[in-house]
Design brief:
globular, mainly beta, 11 strands, single chain, 7-stranded mixed β-sheet
């Protein structure tokens, strides 16, 4: 089982930027995909962005053009660059990986967008 540790969350004003990081405890090269999800209070956990082992990316419509997912296999880390943040982006953001042994999740990092 891989361990995932998210970081980079915090409080930011509308229009601001944050970069989330998800560090894996072992090589990420073999994972089918690495993903970011988010969950706001009282709502379900939704996919925000994903990146496959081949580098193909996918985004939720609500974040297209504002968020960018990337991965650094040398650092076993996946990133989520979030620009032009909106109050509705406020949520706990979770890192997820899908591999041959199934899904693994991080503990989450809080992102709050507020003036």
């Amino acid at each position: 089982q891989v361990q995932l540790v998210e970081s980079g969350g915090g409080l930011v004003q509308p229009g601001g930027s944050l970069r989330l990081s998800c560090a894996a405890s072992r090589s990420i090269g073999s994972f089918y995909s690495m993903n970011w999800y988010r969950q706001a209070p009282g709502k379900q956990r939704d996919l925000v962005a994903g990146i496959t082992s081949g580098g193909r990316t996918t985004y939720a419509d609500s974040v297209k053009g504002r968020f960018t997912i990337s991965r650094d296999n040398t650092k076993n880390t996946v990133y989520l660059q979030m620009n032009s943040l909106k109050p509705e982006d406020t949520a706990v953001y979770y890192c997820n990986v899908v591999g041959i042994s199934g899904n693994s999740w991080g503990q989450g990092t809080q992102v709050t967008v507020s003036s």
